Amino acid sequence: MNLANLERLTPYCWTVPLAPGERRAPVLLYGSEPLLVSMDDKVLEQLLNVARLPGLVGAAMTMPDAHWGYGFPIGGVAAFDPAAGGVVSAGGVGFDISCGVRCLRTTLSETDLNRKMTAVADALFETIPAGLGVEGAVRLTMKEIDDVLLGGAAWAVERGYGTAADLDYIEERGTMAGALPSAISDLAKRRQLGEMGTLGSGNHYLEVQVVEQVFDHEAARAFGIEVGQVVIAIHCGSRGLGHQIGSDYLVSLARAAGRLGITLPDRELACAPIESPEGQAYLGAMRAAINCALANRQILTHLTRQALTPLFPNATIETLFDVSHNTCKAEYHEVDGSRRLLYVHRKGATRAFGPGHESLPARYRAVGQPVVIGGSMGTGSYILAGMATSETRAFASASHGAGRAMSRRQALQRWRGRELVDDLAAQGILIRTRSMRGVAEEAPGAYKDVDLVAEATEAAGLARRVARLRPRICVKG
């Protein structure tokens, strides 16, 4: 990104001054100078387009891991007020609705893992359905999929996939209110009938990690983690159903924008007023997709326990936290001294409530919400905690990953999957995959430096680092 177009407000916050006569909301780009330099100029172009949408409150923002996406930049945050004509945008949520991370803590140590590394990798690969279009053992009818879309993770627990204790550590306690299965096409539902409890492809993964370093010992104690402990991250979303909802509503929201005279700076920003019939229908469908994703990660948690229990009969595997990073949620925030109901779009951005927030489980309330920054399969990931300053600076939002530094096509031209798997094995990291092409697309070098992203996230006051995680086993889609 050409920084000549930006004005530096703080060492980790940048803006673009308004040109004479220009009409748009402010923009804020969080990140260090090296991270912003590494971003494509398209990120800024997309952010400025978001700032021209009606009803935006405060600034349109990007997180330190931002890269360009469909309409909205990935790593983008934007809040809209329905009372001010604010809109909801399918492009502001993304196609993989409610993609997120379930983090599991275990009672296993790295020493335990080292004794059975290959067996653990093979057991997870055999048990976790992964890959493009791969279906799982859970088969649903059209009636049952509606139950999933209303019940979320609670539906899965009721059918024996996990425990009630898991629900305490999932946002919305595992069930998103306001879901409208009737607002979803039969095509979208049929795409999901065989995909519950599957990982998918692309950047989705199940990763066995070891806590390498602790930065915040108080928060680490609250989260139940310590150096040398094995944790497991599950990264996936609402699979084919969410993608079809995104495709369907991009058409209907674009028509609504045209009918209501909303000028779209980019067709990919198709949107409708929150209070319009089209806006309400999309929100109902999107909330149902959130429930689909939460149920999916709940079933995958159950399958993970099934895979590991025969190898470690005395180990416990608990949900540390589950939070999505592709959503639009109705939340109350303080704006200019007033508490207002806003619809916060987070696309590739994680909700990050600070200490004391009423929605957090009692165990974490004093230290803030767990936030996971997923890195690459060859570098590392981070667990962070929400900060009070994130509320005022970014509507309680933070980074969600390392963020791509290059496209998948560029990565394919540069790396070979087989070579990467062998190189990582030599570093003590086992990869299990059905697609060497997928491994090359997700090469560690195709991502930004996750350490720089985590440092910038903390320095910008969005979330503070609690622990760094080192990958040991990665099951790729």
Overall helicity: 25-40%
Please count the helical segments: 16
Mean pLDDT: 96
Q: Note the main sheet.
A: 8 strands, mixed
Strand content: 25-35%
List the uncertain runs: none
Count of individual beta strands: 19
Distance between the terminal alpha carbons, to the nearest Å?
31 Å
Please identify the structural class as seen in this structure: alpha+beta
Query: Tell me, what's the shape?
Result: globular
Radius of gyration: 21 Å
Describe the protein in words.
With 477 residues, this protein is an alpha+beta fold. 34% of the residues lie in helices and 26% in strands. The protein contains 16 helices and 19 strands. It has helices at residues 33-38, 41-50, 110-115, 117-127, 142-151, 153-158, 164-167, 186-192, 217-223, 239-259, 277-308, 388-394, 408-414, 417-426, 436-441, 450-459; strands at residues 7-10, 13-15, 27-30, 56-67, 74-80, 87-89, 100-109, 205-214, 229-236, 271-273, 317-324, 326-335, 338-347, 350-351, 370-373, 381-386, 397-398, 430-432, 463-476. Strands 7, 8, 9, 11, 15, 16, 18 and 19 form an eight-stranded mixed sheet that branches. The longest helix has 32 residues, at 277-308. The two termini are 31 Å apart.
Question: What keyword list fits this structure?
Answer:
477 residues, alpha+beta, 8-stranded mixed sheet, 16 helices, 19 strands, globular
Task: Reconstruct the topology from this structure.
Layout: E1 7-10, E2 13-15, E3 27-30, H1 33-38, H2 41-50, E4 56-67, E5 74-80, E6 87-89, E7 100-109, H3 110-115, H4 117-127, H5 142-151, H6 153-158, H7 164-167, H8 186-192, E8 205-214, H9 217-223, E9 229-236, H10 239-259, E10 271-273, H11 277-308, E11 317-324, E12 326-335, E13 338-347, E14 350-351, E15 370-373, E16 381-386, H12 388-394, E17 397-398, H13 408-414, H14 417-426, E18 430-432, H15 436-441, H16 450-459, E19 463-476
Parallel strand pairs: 3-4, 18-19
Antiparallel strand pairs: 1-2, 2-3, 4-5, 5-13, 6-10, 7-9, 7-11, 8-9, 8-19, 12-13, 14-17, 15-16, 16-19
